[in-house]
Amino acid sequence: MIREDLNFLKRFSMVIGMLVGVAVILIVMAMVVQRAVPPEADPNAATRIEQRLKPVGAVYAGATGAAAKAAAEEAARQAAASQVAFGGSTDGQTIYDGVCAACHGTGAGGAPTLDPSHWTARIAKGMDTLHTHAIEGFQGEAGLMPAKGGMPSLTDEQVIATVDWMVEQAR
Ligand code: HEC
């Protein structure tokens, strides 16, 4: 081999060697960093395992059993309440804002707004009639009031509370 070739080979292998060195340094740094950062724990993992290991049924016995039973009943009650519209709330304003205001807020489709002049004649029909009309729906001269404002998941008590709230505002 001539001298130039030897020189080239020397330089070339030096460059390759440096690149390998850099690569090794990067690998080592990556490993160090990876070890330093704790792995992200799945927040639901424990719950999932608990659910999987949970016994199918349970017997409540003694004082601890009574407490556990009460807790289980409370949890079941809360789960059921979340199926009911507005979590079972009987706050008239909340339900009005969420459901009824779509029509009664603007008077859309002939719906009476909270203006007292829209309500004197209706209040004269008696609160029982207004409650029934709101729960079962009502076709009047002004338009169609859908049953429970079109939200069947409202309980009768919720609708009654909302009607009472609306009438209170319109007095
Ligand atoms: C899709 C529109 C619409 C929605 C939503 C709606 N209403 Fe009505 N509501 C009407 C209309 C229209 C009337 C007027 C009917 C008539 O007298 O002709 C009315 C009338 C009423 C009346 C008077 C009934 C009577 O006998 O005079 C009450 C009370 C009432 N609504 C309560 C509610 C409540 C409570 C909600 C919410 C849970 C609600 N409405 C949601 C359209 C609506």
UniProtKB/TrEMBL annotation:
Protein name per the record: Cytochrome c5 family protein
One matching Pfam family: Cytochrome_CBB3
PROSITE patterns referenced in this protein's UniProt entry, alphabetically: CYTC
Phylogenetic classification of the source organism: Bacteria, Pseudomonadati, Pseudomonadota, Gammaproteobacteria, Lysobacterales
TM regions (residue ranges): 12-33
Keywords, sorted A to Z: Electron transport, Heme, Iron, Membrane, Metal-binding, Transmembrane, Transmembrane helix, Transport
Originating organism: Coralloluteibacterium stylophorae
Entry coiled-coil feature ranges: none
Domain Cytochrome c positions: 87-170
Stored Gene3D superfamilies: Cytochrome c-like domain
Entry's Gene Ontology molecular function annotations: electron transfer activity; heme binding; iron ion binding
InterPro entries: Cyt_c-like_dom (IPR009056), Cyt_c-like_dom_sf (IPR036909), Cyt_CIE (IPR002323)
